[in-house]
Design brief:
340 residues, alpha+beta, six-stranded mixed β-sheet, 6 helices, globular
Length: 340
């Protein structure tokens, strides 16, 4: 009887450990050089990848009303990722490392999860990473804040205040002896809402400071900035020619801002046909029918010019049809292949 109780207690403790509050996993095990001939990266907003209730998600606070719904969504995400088999994935709208671990299990344990908690207490969303390659630095964040509107802002809103970048991380990889910084970010929502214009520009200015600092510290390094920036690109138009009301992409690419001209980032979208440039569905008329005019490109992969020559393919993947009630994400993945 005692032995049965011990077995039962051990099983119960295993369940409890597996369902404790979410954790972060920002630390690498060891630095190493990744000797590879090619690398595939993916940017994917996975839409509320939450398995533990935070602010009623799963529940009435997000898309997935029950844990069963959220688990089905998790399986859909795994199927999409498995089809494209990326080496490094930047994932937006993740609750924590538990969710990344569950996703990795469905992917056969091929990846190592990394996530550093952000400061978005309203949603609890974070930006995380699954990777087959070994980062050479722990995930870090910048705590910088900025007043808005920033100098030179053309935002029409009169809103003022201070902001940081609540959802982001940065790390680095050594690939064949080359240092490549990676910055993953998720900026404030609503691309066309004037009240968000100035604050999102301030977030972009903070990331510009970070990018300038990283590249200045190692002029031979390359850098990839990727994520859901919730904004349009004035230079590389999306499939519907959406026009930005902010200078966010210009700031991030080094075209405008305090460090304009000190570095340059190129959009992976410039390497595909305009008709393919859409990554997100918004249903403004609430008819639950996804039409081409409701698609936009707000997820981006930007890179230093030295990496562009190594790009063998850019794929704006659209492997599923959007509709109300789908278990897929309301975003599509962006895939970039590099050959070294």
């Amino acid at each position: 009887m005692l032995s049965y109780f011990i077995v039962w207690l051990f099983a119960l403790s295993a369940v409890v450990v597996a369902n404790t509050n979410d954790t972060q996993c920002p630390y690498i095990n060891a630095t190493k050089t990744n000797s590879v001939s090619k690398t595939r990266i993916m940017q994917y907003n996975v839409e509320w990848l939450f398995l533990k209730t935070y602010n009623d998600c799963p529940g009435s606070g997000c898309t997935w009303k029950t844990l069963s719904d959220a688990t089905t969504h998790l399986n859909y995400l795994a199927n999409v990722i498995d089809d494209y088999n990326p080496d490094i994935i930047n994932l937006c709208e993740v609750e924590g490392c538990y969710e990344l671990g569950q996703l990795n299990t469905l992917l056969g344990g091929a990846y190592q999860p990394y996530l550093l908690f952000g400061t978005d207490s309203a949603t609890g969303q974070n930006v995380g990473m699954l990777t087959k390659l070994a980062p050479s630095a722990d995930l870090k964040r910048t705590s910088e804040t900025r007043q808005y509107p920033i100098p030179g802002s053309k935002c029409s809103s009169s809103s003022t205040g201070s902001t940081g970048v609540s959802k982001h991380y940065y790390t680095m990889y050594n690939i064949n002896g080359k240092t490549i910084y990676m910055v993953g970010a998720h900026l404030l929502a609503f691309p066309t809402e004037t009240s968000r214009c100035a604050s999102r520009e301030a977030q972009a200015a903070i990331l510009q400071d970070l990018i300038h600092s990283l590249l200045s510290s190692d002029p031979a390094a390359e850098l990839i900035l990727l994520g859901d920036f919730n904004d349009f690109d004035a230079e590389v138009a999306d499939a519907n020619d959406d026009k930005p009301i902010t200078a966010v992409l210009d700031i991030l690419k080094g075209v405008k801002g305090d460090w304009a001209g000190s570095y340059s980032l190129v959009s992976a979208a410039s390497l595909v046909q305009q008709s393919q440039r859409y990554t997100s569905w918004w249903d403004p008329n609430d008819d639950c029918v996804a039409t081409p005019n409701e698609m936009s490109m707000i997820d981006h992969v930007l890179m230093t010019p030295g990496l562009v020559e190594h790009v063998s393919q850019v794929l704006f993947a659209h492997p599923y049809t959007e509709f109300c009630g789908t278990y897929n994400s309301d975003h599509y993945p962006v895939v970039v292949d590099f050959v070294w």
